[in-house]
Design goal:
With 492 residues, the chain is α/β, with parallel strands linked by helices. The chain folds into three domains: 3-70, no CATH class; 80-226, Reverse transcriptase/Diguanylate cyclase domain (Alpha-Beta Plaits, 2-Layer Sandwich); 244-482, EAL domain (TIM Barrel), CATH 3.20.20.450. Helix content is 50%, strand content 17%. It contains 18 helices and 15 strands. The chain has helices at 3-11, 13-27, 32-70, 80-91, 107-114, 116-134, 157-171, 201-217, 228-249, 285-295, 298-312, 327-330, 335-346, 370-379, 411-416, 421-436, 449-457, 474-482, and strands at residues 97-105, 139-142, 147-153, 176-178, 181-183, 186-194, 223-225, 256-263, 269-276, 320-324, 353-358, 383-389, 406-409, 440-443, 462-464. The strands form three sheets. Strands 8-9-10-11-12-13-14-15 form an eight-stranded mixed β-barrel, surrounded by six helices. Strands 2-3-1-6-7 form a five-stranded mixed β-sheet, with helices on both faces. It has a two-stranded antiparallel ribbon with strand order 4-5. α10 packs antiparallel against α11 (298-312) and α11 runs parallel beside α13.
Length: 492
């Protein structure tokens, strides 16, 4: 034993050094005393302690980051990424899987009427009751704003999914209390089943999504199963998507037609609606544009239609041309600039062009800068209208101080006016409200003279449909409607 060590043991300095080393190891703090008495061993022990602590902190931070990346911060549920990862993993062993895709009916109304804070609380409350209805052992995820998905695995996944969907539709009928208010929102659900042998996880989710939209089209607050009928529609949709992509790459060889519109009081031709027809498909411009918008190039398709309409306008004097547009296209940052460029290139009169927005998309423009842009264009003469009004959500209150010059009634109202007194009263009521806002009313899908007469008596100013004329090419429109030697009339 060295003299230094004996001296330290006698004086107690060795103990002090060991204690300092322990303190340094325990706290991770190196003091002058610990460094002086403990030497290299003390510093090494402290460094090891610091390393362990840093490693622990790094692991915690990594775990927190991974949780944040895979979970929705509002509801605490797994997000779409985590859902798809889990679904893919479970389907790799060819296990039968069922996916429920769910969209809340009425959530936007809650958000708009009571604010985002109430909307957030409403989403969290719905997430809790969805988990209760699905069962704590089911994979529930928030995959979108008000969209959720549930995954079920096992040989009886289909039956379990149907039972869960029924449970959810029942529990969603009950209100959620928020600050003494009763808030309601139903749910539209779609179910798709399969395994890795016949479907990918992405395709399974897409099928459930499509079934959900079918439930929503049926009126909502119900569920639909993906079946062969929807499979055929999905294949057709994908075929159209491929066709649109090819059209974009090949300078848009999509045939364009026009649907004539006339006044109800004198049968005078006043305009025509541009319609794209893809070979024998029954999708029109609105349908193709909606599909293109969802796939990311709807803006190109819209401006193609506008470009051709402006070019055709030279042959259609004193007549407005209607171009279908979606809310997503109107909200594009370059919408105003691109249509101004198109008008300038053709020397077109902006007052000859009318953009027609589906009425159910009107709410998407609320509280956005889009209406300001629309107001600027209306000062230049561009017109805007709403189509399909009266079918699905059509919020009349949003018409106040809106830039829309007219609304077009859905063809179901035109079809029902001859046999249903209630329909006649509804049309008269819509017309009275629209007129109060300075908005004209038209009607689509008019098939006979009786409907045309009753619509005129109800205050409708213009109509389109078989009673007026079928879809026609630009040349046929000139020959049959524009040529002054040709006369057409609607029987009064």
């Amino acid at each position: 034993m060295s003299k230094l060590r004996k001296s330290m043991m006698v004086t107690g300095l060795w103990c002090a050094g060991v204690s300092a080393a322990h303190a340094a190891a325990a706290t991770g703090i190196i003091t002058p005393e610990s460094a002086a008495f403990g030497g290299i061993a003390i510093i090494a022990a402290a460094a090891a302690a610091i390393s362990r602590r840093n490693l622990l902190l790094a692991r915690r931070e990594h775990a927190a980051a991974m949780h944040q990346a895979s979970h929705d911060p509002l509801t605490g549920l797994p997000n779409r990424l985590a859902f798809m990862r889990k679904l893919s993993g479970m389907m790799e062993d060819k296990r039968q899987a069922a996916v429920i895709f769910l969209d809340l009916d009425g959530f936007k109304a809650v958000n708009d009427n009571f604010g985002h804070y109430v909307g957030d609380d409403f989403l969290k409350a719905n997430a809790v009751r969805l988990q209760e209805a699905a069962g704590s052992d089911r994979l529930l995820a928030r995959v979108g704003g008000d969209e959720f998905a549930i995954a079920i695995f096992g040989h009886n996944a289909r039956q379990i999914a149907c039972r869960i969907a029924s449970n959810i539709t029942q529990c969603m009928k009950n209100p959620i209390l928020s600050d003494g208010r009763e808030l309601f929102a139903g749910a539209s659900l779609g179910i798709a089943c399969g395994n890795s042998a016949d479907v990918t996880p992405e395709e399974l989710l897409k099928r459930a999504d499509m079934a959900m939209y079918e439930a929503k089209r049926s009126g909502g607050c119900t569920w639909e199963m993906f079946d062969s009928r929807l499979a055929a529609a999905l294949n057709r949709c994908e075929t159209l998507f491929t066709a649109i992509g090819q059209a974009v790459d090949a300078a848009f060889p999509i045939p364009m037609f026009y649907e004539p519109m006339t006044r109800t009081d004198n049968a005078q031709l006043i305009g025509a609606r541009a319609v794209l027809k893809w070979h024998d498909a029954d999708e029109d411009a609105e349908g193709l544009m909606g599909l293109a918008a969802r796939e990311g190039f709807g803006s190109d398709l819209l401006h193609h239609v506008l470009d051709r309409a402006c070019a055709d306008a030279r042959n259609f004097p004193a007549m407005r041309l209607c171009v279908p547009v979606t809310a997503q296209q109107l909200l594009a940052t370059d919408f105003e600039q691109r249509i101004e460029t198109t008008f300038l290139r053709h020397g077109a009169d902006p007052s000859r062009i009318e953009f027609q927005l589906p009425a159910h998309q009107l709410r998407a423009l609320r509280k956005r800068l889009c209406p300001q842009m629309m107001q600027r264009l209306t000062t230049r003469g561009v017109q805007f209208s709403l189509t399909g009004f009266g079918n699905g959500p059509s919020d009349i209150s949003l018409l106040a101080k809106s830039p829309f010059k007219r609304l077009v009634l859905h063809e179901s109202l035109s079809a029902g006016i001859s046999s249903d007194v209630t329909t006649q009263q509804v049309i008269q009521g819509i017309n009275a409200i629209a007129r109060a806002y300075g908005i004209e009313v038209g009607a689509a899908g008019v098939s006979n003279s009786s409907q045309a007469k009753l619509l005129r008596l109800a205050g409708v100013s213009e109509i389109s449909g078989r009673q007026v004329g079928e879809l026609c090419s630009p040349a046929e429109l000139v020959r049959d409607f524009v040529d002054p030697a040709t006369t057409r009339a609607i029987s009064a």
